[in-house]
Amino acid sequence: MRLDANAPRLILAPLQGFTDAVFRTTFAEHFTGFDSALAPFVATMPAERIHDRYFRDLLPERNQRLRIEPQILGNDVEGFILVGRRLGDLGYPDVNWNLGCPFRPVTKKRRGAGLLPFPEQVGDFLEKVLPAIPGRLSVKLRLGLKSPLEILKLLPVLNRHPLREIVIHPRTARQMYGGRPDLEAFELCAQASRHPVVYNGDIVSLRTYNELSARFTDVAGWMIGRGALSDPFLPEAITSGAEAASFNVQRFQAFYEDLFGRYREALSGPGHLLDRMKGFWTYFGVHFQKGAALCKRIHRTYHLPAYLELVARFFEEEAQWVAVTPGRASGDAECPAADG
Ligand SMILES: Cc1cc2nc3c(=O)[nH]c(=O)nc-3n(C[C@H](O)[C@H](O)[C@H](O)COP(=O)(O)O)c2cc1C
Fold first, then answer.
1. Which among 77, 115, 198, 288 counts the fewest CB atoms within 10 Å?
2. Which of 64, 55, 56 is nearest to 37 (CA)?
3. Euclidean distance between CA atoms 220 and 199, whole angstroms
4. Tell me, which fold does domain 10-240 have in CATH?
5. What residues line ligand 1, using a CB cutoff of 6 Å?
């Protein structure tokens, strides 16, 4: 909820396998700062395969605490219109198009970032889709599939169409999540776009946010993913401008316990629950002094009781919050990667 019109607009990034309705709701109950969330993508598919349960995570009753915008991944016009209309019926006329997914099985079918080198196909798609969906479209994209210059050929095409906004994660798909976001390229894109532009990528601390917001004064919003999973106090620190007041292990633990309890109810069986928690700890571990060691121990655990004991002991004896080391938005080198 946006309480202060002057506060920066912060959007929770979509992280498939992490920022689902359970996470979004629990997060918004424990922390403030986000205005809305972009939900992880639903993919287009043939009409006969689209069942109600496909949209379960997006149902309005499961998303009362944090406003969401759904995201669609796909390149087939018919399929996109179909999913767009179903989402419109659910109460989401505005949707986002995923042009950023970097994974080879997706990109080789010219979906996600795989479409970035093909501006004509994108233009053709927009021409047909825009008049046929119930609301407005926004686009989330990277700089290119292989080259950061691809976006410069795409932007004139996007400029010709009435988009709500574009979200730019200034990396190529080939980079995946490595290296640094290309801020020079972002600057060029922000100048070349006639649509409002949202910045996304590696906002992991108040300092990173302050640096970016001082440099890019015209952006329409800031999208934060891994940084908020590693430091759930970050959106609050950004909107209040005060980092130090935010860190609080007890508040983190209360959030974690609610999250765990809800996944325990929602997921079928201890294996799924443990897998989900292993994923979260690759991020949660980042800000704790012995977080990397805990994360490794958790990843070597295959039984729920052992996991519960590890985490309980950690909170009792070891949990100490530390400021972030730049470049460690996720537990990358320290822990098996969760970036699916
Ligand atoms: C595990 C994982 C899942 C992701 N799922 C999606 C997704 O469903 N849709 C999307 O547009 N981006 C997805 N992304 C990309 C993020 O939304 C975001 O663009 C990227 O992580 C950079 O932002 P950050 O540094 O703030 O995390 C995903 C990233 C990760 C690590």
1. 77
2. 64
3. 8
4. TIM Barrel (3.20.20)
5. 13-18, 40-41, 71, 98, 100, 140, 169, 200-203, 224-227, 329, 338-340
Does the structure show a pLDDT above 90 at 251? yes
Strand partners, 36: 11, 67
CB under 8 Å to 334, separation ≥6 — which residues? 285, 286, 291, 292, 295, 296, 328
The protein residue whose alpha carbon is closest to atom 29 in ligand 1 is: 15
Q: Whose CA is nearest to atom 31 of ligand 1?
A: 339
Report the residue among 16, 99, 230, 281 best suited for mutation to probe ligand 1: largest number of ligand atoms under 8 A from its CB: 16
Least confident span in 118-132, 186-200, 305-319: 305-319
| Length in residues, the chain | 340
**Of the residues 96, 169, 171, 286, which should be mutated to test ligand 1's pocket, given the most ligand atoms within 8 Å of the CB?**
169
Nearest CA to ligand 1 atom 10: 14
Residue 172: helix, strand or coil by DSSP?
strand
Q: Where are the domains of the chain?
A: 10-240, 249-334
The pTM for the full model equals 0.95
Mean pLDDT of 219-232: 97
